[in-house]
Amino acid sequence: MFPIGDENLPGRGLAWITLGLIAVNVAVFLFLQGGSGDNTFTYGWSSIAREITTGVDLTQAVPVVIDGTRYAVPQAPGPDPIYLTLLSSMFMHGSWLHLGGNMLFLWIFGDNVEHRAGPILYLVAYLVAGIVGSLAQILSDPSSPIPSLGASGAISGVLGAYIVLFPGNRVTALLLRFPVRVPALVAIGMWIALQVFSSLADPTGAGGVAYLAHIGGFATGVLAGLLFRALPDRGPGRPAALT
Question: Which residues are annotated as catalytic?
Fold first, then answer.
């Protein structure tokens, strides 16, 4: 099930923080990563578990053995302090497909959460969810030298807040190439269930997907959504239009 749209809150205008986050992610990928996840900036500014747990910036390739095959994981100088990679890595992506998928989810679900929470709280929750997601993945293998990057943890936080705030919103999704409309509780619920089951098979993300980052970010978003729901809604109306 692949979401392509949802019901918007009417009369709220543009979600400027969401649009800004999309712009920053695209700009980082184009101008700092060179439109590719394979350059010095990517290796230096990604989040690496061993760097975070030791506080030491890895600058030389580190050998690892995966499924009996030996690899040399590239490294490059990062920021000082190296812990800043917990923030920088959530604005970086490994490919156009990685970037496009994440930005589509942010575009679909971010605006309603931003309008309900307000721009400042929304931005804080987004960043905190991204950092918590990275830390959750690091806990699965604290000595790993493999770079981790992407906005998925932060966007999982958006999904967590969305399912609390708008469980009955209709989400338009492609199911076996056919468009269907289902409640957000079903669409997002199926997504997080997939992350949980996948993490049981691949807890360290060795297959290339940081499932625990998704779960950690989502849990943070759920907590944020409960906070946002307790706040007064300053805007008009109920969901009506599709993105």
Answer: 152, 214
| Cα 195 from Cα 181, distance rounded (Å) | 22
Query: What amino acid occupies position 44?
Result: G
First to last CA, the chain: 17
Q: Which amino acid is at 92?
A: M
User: Distance (Å, rounded) from C-alpha 192 to C-alpha 81?
Assistant: 33
Q: Identify the helix (H) or strand (E) that includes residue 127.
A: helix 119-140
Tell me the C-alpha distance between 93 and 14, whole Å. 25
Q: Cα separation of 224 and 210, whole Å?
A: 21
Length of the chain, please?
A: 243
In tens, the pLDDT along 59-99 reads 999 998 877 889 899 999 999 999 999 999 999 999 999 99
Q: Is the omega angle on the peptide bond into residue 147 within 30 degrees of 0, that is, cis?
A: no
The pLDDT tens digits of the residues spanning 127-159 come to 999 999 999 999 999 999 999 999 999 999 999
